């Protein structure tokens, strides 16, 4: 039997609460249960609300999606990280499994319509077409499941997570209906304080940084050159514009710990060619990285 669906309440100990963005039953809710099963999930309407819940001490941490293997990066997060006042302390990879959920007593023969978020519908085109269902776009997956349960119409189903089915009393008519069975979302855990792992441990460390380069020719090339000369592997590098398209900011993840000599030298060189540099987290690489 799956564990009971737990939601944080006003009486919950903040030290035992993890904030997430979305409605109860969202995929972020499922990620919380997978990654932090001992904490009570706190639903938040927006990413800003989830950040604030941690910053204000109403939650010990937040679990936030940062990128998806199919849809790419979650752009809002990169705008919030520089000023959010929080640090990345861990990562979690959630294999996204879409379930076809319907009220009890419904069969595949009675179904006519299926509701979900546009991305979920697009990721399940093959199953929707094969079953002859009319796809109907809704605001989110968990909300679709809740509304289908409330209407209790045997002609309607929702595409949502398994936890949404548990929460709203729906049955799974068909499991794992996504077209691509490698669809995975990466989440980061955010806390008020850095929790750097042991630099001398056996596990691979990842350092996350945000920086702005100086407005001079070849500044980015020179800044990143320190990683090459010091044999530091850059895992991820993304750019985005801020300050009215005037300034390019970068989010990067590198292998290694700031306490490692080669990483320290590379960061010093990066700082020399940058207008600003901030380490926003040092954490242990998730096992998924070596399995993928």
UniProtKB/TrEMBL annotation:
Domain Prephenate dehydratase: 17-192
Keywords: Amino-acid biosynthesis, Aromatic amino acid biosynthesis, Lyase, Phenylalanine biosynthesis
Enzyme Commission (EC) number: 4.2.1.51
Domain ACT: 208-282
GO molecular function: prephenate dehydratase activity
UniProt cross-references to InterPro entries, sorted A to Z: ACT-like_dom_sf, ACT_dom, Chor_mutase/pphenate_deHydtase, Preph_deHydtase, Preph_deHydtase_CS
SUPFAM superfamilies from the UniProt entry: ACT-like (SSF55021), Periplasmic binding protein-like II (SSF53850)
Originating organism: Ferrovibrio xuzhouensis
One Pfam family from the record: PDT
Entry superkingdom: Bacteria
Metabolic or biological pathway: Amino-acid biosynthesis; L-phenylalanine biosynthesis; phenylpyruvate from prephenate: step 1/1
Protein name in the entry: prephenate dehydratase
Record field: catalytic activity: prephenate + H(+) = 3-phenylpyruvate + CO2 + H2O
PANTHER family recorded: PREPHENATE DEHYDRATASE P PROTEIN, PREPHENATE DEHYDRATASE-RELATED
């Amino acid at each position: 039997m799956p564990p009971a669906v737990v939601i944080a309440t006003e009486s919950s100990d903040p030290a035992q609460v993890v904030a997430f963005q979305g409605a109860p039953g969202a995929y972020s809710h499922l990620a919380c249960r997978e990654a932090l099963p001992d904490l009570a999930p706190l639903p938040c309407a927006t990413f800003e609300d989830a950040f604030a819940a941690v910053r204000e001490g109403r939650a010990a941490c937040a679990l936030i999606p940062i990128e998806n293997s199919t849809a790419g990066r979650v752009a809002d997060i990169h705008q919030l990280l520089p000023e959010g006042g929080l640090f990345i302390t861990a990562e979690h990879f959630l294999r996204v499994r879409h379930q076809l959920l319907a009220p009890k007593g419904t069969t595949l023969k009675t179904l006519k319509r299926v509701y979900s978020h546009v991305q979920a519908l697009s990721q399940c085109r093959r199953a929707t077409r094969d079953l002859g269902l009319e796809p109907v776009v809704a605001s989110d997956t968990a909300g679709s499941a809740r509304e289908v349960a409330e209407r209790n119409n045997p002609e309607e189903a929702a595409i949502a997570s398994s936890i949404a089915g548990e929460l709203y009393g729906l049955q799974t008519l068909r499991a794992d209906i996504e077209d691509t069975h490698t669809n995975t979302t990466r989440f980061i855990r955010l806390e008020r304080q850095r929790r750097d792992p042991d630099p001398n441990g056996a596990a691979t460390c990842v350092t996350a940084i945000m920086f702005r380069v100086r407005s001079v020719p070849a500044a980015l090339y020179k800044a990143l050159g320190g990683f090459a000369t010091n044999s530091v592997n850059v895992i991820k590098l993304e750019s985005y514009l801020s300050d009215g398209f005037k300034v390019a900011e970068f989010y990067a993840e590198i292998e290694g710990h700031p306490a490692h000599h080669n990483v320290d030298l590379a960061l010093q060189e990066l700082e020399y060619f940058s207008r600003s540099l901030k380490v926003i987290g040092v954490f242990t690489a998730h096992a998924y990285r070596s399995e993928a």
